[in-house]
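INFO worker-7 received task bundle
INFO bundle size: 2
INFO processing item 0
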Amino acid sequence: MAPRGLSLEEKRTKLLEIFHDTKDFYQLKELEKLGPKLKGIVSQTVKEVLQSLVDDGLVQGDKIGASNFFWSFPSQRGTIVQNRLDSAKETRAGHEAQLAELKTAIEHERTLRPLSDSRAAALEQLTSMKKQLAVLQEEIDAYGACDPVKVEEKRRAVTLAHEAAVRWTDNYSILLSHFTRQTGMDAQDIRRYLEIGDDYEDIF
């Protein structure tokens, strides 16, 4: 069974170890040689792993002359983790402050709207009316075919269909008249050939 390759996170950890163990500066080509030799990282993946560490701020890079150098010290990781922790604490504190403001606002609204007998009765009536509305809506849905809105929609659809049918029969009449004039054929012969009845144009 072939040995399992390193995951991306394992490669990141091992590449960082090269920096932290040696406390030295490296160029990419040097890391591409050291990665396979010291940590078993495939040479072709070193560039991608290194870029991910740079993006996360775990490795620093700078151009010196015509070459790019990279470095990382153990203290950097601790600083980054501490910064992230401080940021998370600030975010949490902000959320807690917002929550406290909301609670204060809710309590303030409650003092402005005390639950008196009249208000309690009004709320109960509102709940009852909502239930009645739901029942009525169910009844309307049950008689959906007789719903005035749906009936009007169907009537409109029939009207549009009728208007379209009239346009087609008009076009048919114009074409039939033009064809008989051009060919001299009898209109009845054309109707029989096309299997069109005499009542085709009788649309009211």
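INFO item 0 finished
INFO processing item 1
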Amino acid sequence: MGPGGRWVRAAHTALSAALTLGLLLHRTDLQKQEERGELLQPLIFVLLVLCSILLYFKVSLMDPGFVKPEEEVKAGEDKEQGVVIPQLPGDIKLRRCGYCLVKQPMRAKHCQQCQHCVRRYDHHCPWLENCVGERNHPLFIVYLSVQLVVLLWGGQVAWSGLYFEQSREWLQHNIFLLVSFLLIFIFTIVVLLLLVSHLYLISCNTTTWEFMSHHRISYLRHSELENPFDQGIILNLWRFFCSRHLTAWENIYFHKNTEPV
């Protein structure tokens, strides 16, 4: 973890903690419930914030699906990690990455920031300071969902503490809640757009990189199908959220492209 990643993660944690503490200390619905001794909703809100922070660190720090050199991928290591590396038929050849010199599975891409090839590469997230790939993409969706709930609830709480008057004194008393509401509103739009776009791409079994660079990716450009990995919404969602093993995308690709029309 580089110094840049530490600063980004520290900023995320500090911002989340500051907004949460401010919403609890100002005259909002949560503070009124605390004063009445109704602690259930404030406790659930704090626990949701903590859950979102823990998910953020989990997704940010976990292996997104780095492709390891062949000599480092041993059967014993795979069993220890609970990971099954997909086996390919002998006639399917993997191309070698020009940067890290590993054999690159289909749908993998080398990330210049992480200096690794990543399986089913989606994108490099600057807010996570990590790639989103085959191993951490499902948890990334869970994180976005929890974060969206926290932001929507936080926006409602911030709004509940605002009362509007045209005076300098009003601005002094409400500046924190006003800034908090504006920040939460912006973050909510960003997270909502991210979540909706990712769910759409997942339902089609494509990635952000493949969607944006379809014309430049050789295995998509030379395919007879628009999306050779699409197996229907139900199977796409099941494979994404429920499959516990890495997928040999070459098998799906060549099977789809050799089916009779």
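INFO item 1 finished
INFO post-check item 1: The first helix runs from residue 3 to 25.
INFO post-check item 1: The first strand starts at residue 95 and ends at 96.
INFO worker-7 idle
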